[in-house]
Amino acid sequence: MVLSFRSHSVTGQKDYKDMRRFVANSIWLTVFFAAIMSITVCILCRSVLIAMKTPADILDLAYDYIFIIFAGIPITLAYNLLTGIIRSLWGFQIAADLSADGSSGKYRI
Questions:
Q1: Successive 10-residue mean pLDDT values, the chain, 109 residues
Q2: Are the beta carbons of 36 and 21 closer than 8 angstroms?
Q3: How far apart are CA 76 and CA 13, in angstroms?
């Protein structure tokens, strides 16, 4: 999220080289953390369920359920990254359009 705010200020300065660099770094960091988090929690999933004393008759079903949720971590992180990038790029443009003439113009609610 910090990188999204940084790309927002770079966009406002019209510094597109730095903006591309921040977006690329955001993508790489998201891929890295998504891989580390997903692999770690998917490997430790059964151990955590056993440590929580999950009843044996539902252990396999609980494992299947929580494994699918943990495997979806990269999708959640990718969604958050994409919305942060869109918000930082287009949010600035909308704010600039609104402040250019002082009226809501084409963004009337």
A1: 53 72 90 93 93 94 93 91 81 55 53
A2: no
A3: 30
